C-alpha cells in the first residue's frame, strides 16, 4: 500500500506520529480487503485550511474534524476477493478540532485523531452515517477496527 502522511498543521500540543497513522491506515485497508497497491493520502491541516475546505466542499461554516475526498470510489472487498487497485483518496484532519473533541470524549488527542482517521477511511470506502442504521454499522466497524489495531500495538 502506498500511504502518504503529511503534517501541515503546525499543531504543537501533541506530536503527530506519522508512522502510527500510516500503520493504522495499512491495518484498516488490509482488514477491509483493499488491494495492496491502493494509494491513500492522510493530511493534517490547520484550522484556517480546514475551515476553507469545509466551506468550499460541504458549504458548512467553520472548521470540522475530518473530511474525506474519495477518488476511484473503491469499496471493501471480502476474504479472498480484494478490491481492484486504485487511488482511494484523501483524508484531511484538523488536530486543533480533534484536541477539543478529545477533551469532551475523555481521551487523548492522538486517540481522537486515530479514530478520525479510521472514520475518514471508512467514508472513502463508501460508508456513511446519514441514516440511523448506517451510523450504527459504520460506528461499530470503526470502533472494532480501531480497538483491534490498538490491541495489536
TrEMBL record:
GO terms for biological process: rRNA processing. One of its GO terms (molecular function) is metalloendopeptidase activity. Its cofactor is Zn(2+). Pfam families: YbeY. It is found in: Cytoplasm. Binds 1 zinc ion. Keywords: Cytoplasm, Endonuclease, Hydrolase, Metal-binding, Nuclease, Ribosome biogenesis, rRNA processing, Zinc. Zn(2+) binds at residues 119, 123, 129. GO terms for cellular component: cytoplasm. It comes from the Bacteria. Its main location: cytoplasm. Its EC number is 3.1.-.-. Belongs to the endoribonuclease YbeY family. Single strand-specific metallo-endoribonuclease involved in late-stage 70S ribosome quality control and in maturation of the 3' terminus of the 16S rRNA. This is Endoribonuclease YbeY.
Amino acid at each position: 500500500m502506498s500511504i502518504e502522511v503529511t503534517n501541515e498543521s503546525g499543531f504543537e500540543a501533541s506530536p503527530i506520529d506519522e508512522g502510527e497513522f500510516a500503520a493504522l491506515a495499512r491495518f484498516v485497508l488490509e482488514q477491509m480487503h483493499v488491494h495492496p497497491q491502493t494509494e491513500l493520502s492522510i493530511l493534517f491541516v490547520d484550522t484556517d485550511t480546514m475551515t476553507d475546505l469545509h466551506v468550499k466542499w460541504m458549504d458548512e461554516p467553520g472548521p470540522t474534524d475530518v473530511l474525506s475526498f474519495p477518488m476511484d470510489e473503491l469499496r471493501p472487498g471480502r476474504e479472498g476477493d480484494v478490491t481492484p487497485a486504485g487511488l482511494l483518496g484523501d483524508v484531511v484532519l484538523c488536530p486543533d478540532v480533534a484536541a477539543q473533541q478529545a477533551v469532551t470524549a475523555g481521551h487523548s488527542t492522538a486517540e481522537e485523531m486515530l479514530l478520525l482517521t479510521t472514520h475518514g477511511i471508512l467514508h472513502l470506502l463508501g460508508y456513511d452515517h446519514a441514516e440511523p442504521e448506517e451510523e450504527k454499522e459504520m460506528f461499530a466497524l470503526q470502533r472494532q477496527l480501531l480497538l483491534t489495531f490498538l490491541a495489536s500495538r
